[in-house]
Automatic annotation (TrEMBL):
Coiled coil: none annotated. PANTHER family: ABC TRANSPORTER ATP-BINDING PROTEIN (PTHR30482:SF17), HIGH-AFFINITY BRANCHED-CHAIN AMINO ACID TRANSPORT SYSTEM PERMEASE (PTHR30482). It is found in: Cell membrane. Keywords: Cell membrane, Membrane, Transmembrane, Transmembrane helix. This is Branched-chain amino acid transport system permease protein. GO terms for molecular function: branched-chain amino acid transmembrane transporter activity. Its main location: membrane. GO terms for cellular component: plasma membrane. It is a multi-pass membrane protein. The chain crosses the membrane at residues 26-51, 57-76, 106-125, 132-155, 175-195, 225-249, 261-288, 295-314. InterPro entries: ABC_transp_permease (IPR001851), LivM-like (IPR043428).
Length: 342
C-alpha cells in the first residue's frame, strides 16, 4: 500500500478526523439561542396580536417538526396525527372539568397523548406504507367519533375552555405563549438529542433505507416506537395549546384531516428529513395562511399545487437551497469525516 493510500484511510490513518461541530454549527447554535432569548421576551415587548400570532406560529413549528420526525426519519407517513391533536385538546377539557389547573392540564394532556400513541403502536407499527397511513387515519376517525358522542365534552357543537377565564386576559395570553415556547424548545430539543446520539445515525439509516438498516443490525422497531410516541406527545401538546390559544374547539375541526395536510405541506416545502427544514416550512405556511386564508377553497387549492410543485421540482425543500450553500451543517447533528488539512 502506498503512502498516499494509507493517509486517506479514515479508520486508522492520520489524513482525516471525525468531527461533529464546525464554525458554522457553532454560529448556528448561537443564532438559535439568540432567537430563543428574543422569543422569551415577546409577551413583554409586543402588542397582543403579535403574541397570539407568534403562539400560532410556534404551534405550527411543533406540528411540522413532529410530522418530519415520523416521516422524515422513521419512514412513517401518517395521515392520522389529528388523532393526538384532538385527543390532547379534549383531554384538557376533561381535566379542567375536574378542577385540574388548566396549564397543568396541558402538560398532562400532552403526556396522555403519548400514552395513547404507545397503546395503539402495537397495531400500527406492524404496518407499512399505504396500509400504515390508512390505519392511522382510521384511528383518528374512530377517536373523533367517540369524542363526538360525549355530551359532557360538548358533543358536535363544540366546547369552550372556561377554566382559563380565571386569568386576566393579558396574563392568560402571556402564560399561553410561554408554555407554547417551552413545549417548542423541549420537543425540538428531544429531536435534536435523538439526532446527536448514536440513534441519529440509525434514524438516518432508517430514513434512507429501512430494510438495509435492519440488515446491518439497526433495531428499527424500538427507534420507530420512540419517534411515534414522541410525535404523539408533540401533536397532543399542539392540540392542547391550540385550545388554550383559541379557547374553543369542535370535534369536526380539531380532528380534521386538514391538520395532516398542513403538516405535509410544511415539511415538503421546508425540507423532509432535515432538522431546520420544517421550521422554515412552518414560517412559509404561517405567512401563506395569514395572507391567503380568506380566499377559501382557492387557498387550499393553491397549497396543494405548491406542495405538488415542490415534490416534483424541489423534493429536498427550501432548506436545501440554503443548507447546500453553507460550508457546514447549521447545527451540530451527526458526524462527518473531515480532512486534517481543512
Amino acid at each position: 500500500m502506498s503512502t498516499t493510500e494509507r493517509a486517506q484511510r479514515p479508520a486508522t490513518g492520520t489524513g482525516y478526523r471525525v468531527s461533529r461541530s464546525s464554525l458554522t454549527s457553532w454560529l448556528g447554535s448561537l443564532g438559535f439561542l439568540a432567537v430563543l432569548v428574543v422569543l422569551a421576551f415577546v409577551p413583554i415587548a409586543f402588542i397582543p396580536v403579535v403574541i397570539q400570532q407568534t403562539t400560532s406560529f410556534l404551534i405550527l413549528v411543533i406540528l411540522a417538526s413532529m410530522w418530519n420526525a415520523l416521516a422524515g426519519y422513521g419512514g412513517l407517513v401518517s395521515v392520522g396525527q389529528q388523532a393526538y391533536i384532538g385527543f390532547g385538546a379534549y383531554a384538557v377539557i376533561f381535566l379542567t372539568q375536574r378542577d385540574v389547573e388548566p396549564y397543568l392540564s396541558i402538560v398532562i394532556a400532552a403526556l396522555a397523548s403519548g400514552v395513547l400513541a404507545l397503546v395503539v403502536s402495537p397495531l400500527l407499527l406492524r404496518l407499512r406504507g399505504g396500509v400504515f397511513a390508512i390505519a392511522t387515519w382510521v384511528v383518528a376517525e374512530t377517536i373523533g367519533l367517540i369524542i363526538l358522542m360525549q355530551a359532557s365534552l360538548g358533543g358536535g357543537t363544540g366546547v369552550s375552555l372556561r377554566a382559563l377565564n380565571v386569568y386576566p386576559v393579558a396574563d392568560r395570553r402571556a402564560y399561553t405563549y410561554w408554555i407554547t415556547l417551552a413545549f417548542t424548545v423541549v420537543l425540538l430539543g428531544a429531536v435534536l438529542l435523538l439526532l446527536r446520539r448514536r440513534t441519529g445515525a440509525a434514524l438516518q439509516a432508517i430514513r434512507d433505507d429501512e430494510g438495509a438498516a435492519a440488515s446491518v443490525g439497526v433495531r428499527t422497531r424500538p427507534l420507530k416506537l420512540i419517534l411515534f410516541v414522541l410525535a404523539g406527545v408533540g401533536c397532543g401538546a399542539a392540540g392542547a395549546l391550540t385550545l388554550a390559544n383559541t379557547l374553543f374547539i369542535q370535534p369536526q375541526s380539531i380532528f380534521g384531516v386538514q391538520y395532516t395536510a398542513f403538516m405535509i405541506f410544511m415539511v415538503l416545502v421546508g425540507g423532509l428529513g432535515s432538522f431546520e427544514g420544517p421550521i422554515l416550512g412552518a414560517l412559509v405556511f404561517f405567512v401563506a395562511q395569514n395572507e391567503f386564508a380568506d380566499l377559501g377553497a382557492w387557498y387550499l387549492i393553491g397549497l396543494g399545487l405548491v406542495a405538488i410543485g415542490f415534490a416534483l421540482f424541489l423534493p429536498r425543500g427550501l432548506w436545501s437551497l440554503i443548507g447546500d450553500r453553507l460550508p457546514g451543517p447549521l447545527l451540530p447533528i451527526g458526524y462527518r469525516l473531515r480532512s486534517n488539512k481543512s
